[in-house]
Amino acid sequence: MSYLYVSEQGASIGITANRFQVKYKDGLTRSIPVETLEVIEVFGNVQITTQCLIECLKRGVNVLFYSTNGAYYGRLISTSHVNVQRQRKQADIGKNEEFKLAFSKRIINAKIRNQIVILRRYVRSRKVDIERSVIEMQNMYKKIDGASTIEQVMGYEGTAAKTYFKILGTLIEPEFSFKGRSKRPPLDPFNSMISLGYSIIMNELYGKIEGKGLNPYFGVMHKDREKHPTLASDLMEEWRAVLIDSTVLSMINGHEITKEEFYTMTEQPGVFLEKDALRKYIKKLEGKFRTENKYLSYVDYSVSFRQALDMQIGQFIKAIETENPEEYFPIVIR
Predict the structure, then answer these.
(1) Per its UniProt record, what Gene3D superfamilies does this chain match (predicted)?
(2) In the predicted model, what is the mean pLDDT of the chain?
(3) pTM reported for the whole predicted model
(4) Which residues are annotated as part of the binding site for Mn(2+)?
């Protein structure tokens, strides 16, 4: 199945003869068979015809809307996949503190391990000593085993994350160096790229979660927040470094993007991607999602990262239906 990203301002999306058609301002068109499309993501001033929206609802094609600089607005989604019994079970698990704690430990342990792998990968070409920082992060995931509350788990995660981003800022090209995580708004190019990437992956998970009959707002680890899909946030944690951080590091250190391809706005603070850079970044992310790997511990064959996202949600369903968090195996890279 394919994903359609449209960021060209003034473009329009319609449907003709069982094909989705994108018409650009310069007269060029792009055509995709309706049966192959899973998601449409639009950025900024892009028009979609009513006929196209109706076809998306009929076929269960999610349509996601972002601003020109990547702020998420919302989505159009069919309700054909709702599974009431599964959502009742999901809601019951939200009251099972033992399950929630054990599940959170598994997710955050894997997240920190993946962050360490990313640091080790990118230090190879840099004269930076990261061993002390790695030991600090290892101490955090070791402490997780003894945590008695989710708040403690998240506290260890937060400490590891601060160490991780502090070191990460020294492992990229000097002009892109940064001193830690900044968001809403991102204050430097690196944070701008990962913030957008996190938004994209969270909303991809949102659609896959709903597609399997779950409620994206019934989380396990993160505290409930109004209008925030906490389950998508939970399931995203193991993927942040694996999919987004690694892609951004690859682009920056591979000189695929320059600092001149970002802009700031006078009316509000923040650093954002120019339109051509945005298109380049989305293309790179899409390539990453399609990359095959053997990181899932419960299968002995290669799957794309996008397939792995879907399979992990299946594992989560298995875990809540059996009320056994050990049925869930977070991805751990090598």
Answers:
(1) CRISPR-associated endonuclease Cas1, C-terminal domain, CRISPR-associated endonuclease Cas1, N-terminal domain
(2) 91
(3) 0.86
(4) 157, 222, 237
